[in-house]
Amino acid sequence: MEISNFDLSIWRGDANGGDLVSYRVPVREGMVVLDAVLWVQANMASDLAVRWNCKAAKCGSCSAEIQGFPRLMCKTPITEYGSQVTVGPMKAFPVIKDLVTDVSWNYKVNKEIPPFTPSEKDLASSEPWRMQQQDVERVMEFRKCIECFLCQDVCHVLRAHDLKSAFYGPRSMVRIASLEMHPKDVLDRRPLLKGNAGIGYCNVTKCCTEVCPEHIHITDNAIIPLKERMDDEYFDPIRSIVRLFRRKAGKPTA
Questions:
Q1: What is the C-alpha separation between 173 and 179, in angstroms, rounded?
Q2: Which domain holds residue 198?
Q3: With contact defined as beta carbons under 8 Å apart, do 88 and 107 qualify?
Q4: How far is it, in rounded angstroms, from Cα 123 to Cα 135?
Q5: Which of 2, 53, 147, 199 could form a disulfide with 193 if both were Cys (CB 3.0 to 4.6 A apart)?
Q6: Contacts (Cβ under 8 Å, ≥6 apart) of 64
Q7: pLDDT mean values, one per 10 residues, the chain (254 residues)
Q8: What CATH number is attached to the domain comprising 216?
């Protein structure tokens, strides 16, 4: 059924509270939710705060919750929803104003992740680094992340329980995986995964993979392999026995 107008309900407010405000928006061919929001800003509410940049689903700026589901506004056709659409800010992060949230916590956490660390031999070598193609492809998948933070928003640990002090979230797991699985990186980040990163809080529901606009297999290719690496080191019974005997012998357990 074709429609000439539709009702766009936008959450308006700030850190002190707010509510949905309804706007009647004219429909045009190929319209996405971001188009509708910007039409409202240009014609009905000039003070409407919305973050966007490329309008090509590559900058990750226009993240929001459309009908309660985390999506990029520039990648969401209004025809998917019929005559009424509701848009709100991401719930996992503090609201600044209207659809704009404070996502700075993600960058703070990112600074706590040790960067790419090659061996001294590789650093000193003048020869090109050689890697298997499958290793290159595995790491390149993680490099597609546009930091829209939709995966962080949908994660129940951050969204429902606000455990930012205990869990870094899916986006950070993707970054750690891109480093840990790089064939030329020699740093061991398993203590971080077990400690401050809190990977044990993830119960692999795959909701983060579902919302990723770049179709990164966050759970299967990043989180689960990292969990396996951490479990092998810290929870394998044989390794635990070896560490126990090493401690008794006064030897390093690492």
A1: 10
A2: 104-239
A3: no
A4: 19
A5: 199
A6: 33, 70, 71, 72, 73, 87, 88, 89, 90, 99
A7: 81 97 94 97 97 95 97 95 94 98 98 96 93 90 97 97 97 97 95 96 96 97 95 78 70 58
A8: 1.10.1060.10
